[in-house]
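I would love for you to help me understand the pair of lines that follows before we discuss the fold together.
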Amino acid sequence: MGVADITHWLVFNIPGTTTALPEGIKVGAQLPDGAIQAKNVRGIPGYMGPEAPPPLYHHYVFELYALDIKLNLGPDATRAQIMAAMDGHVLGKGVLVGRQHS
C-alpha cells in the first residue's frame, strides 16, 4: 500500500519576524500580517485538522521554509505551484514530524 501526501494547510509569505501563529485562524485567504493561506486537499484556503481513519498510525510533517523573496501567488495556488515558485529561493528549512494513532 502506498503513502499519499495530504495537504492539511499551506501558508506562505509569513513575515520573518513572526514567532508564533495565533490559535483559531479562520478559513480565508489572508492573515492579518499579510501571510496567505493556500488551498488544502479539499481545495479550500485554510487549515484542515487531522482526520486519520483507524486503526493505523499516521504521521504529520510540518515544514517551514525561509525564503529570500515573497511569493507572487494568491490563495488559489497549489502546493506544486508554491514549491516551484520557491525553487532557488530557500535559505533554510525546518521540519517537525508528529505521529498519531487513531
Remarks:
- The domain at 10-101 is CATH 3.90.280.10 (Phosphatidylethanolamine-binding Protein).
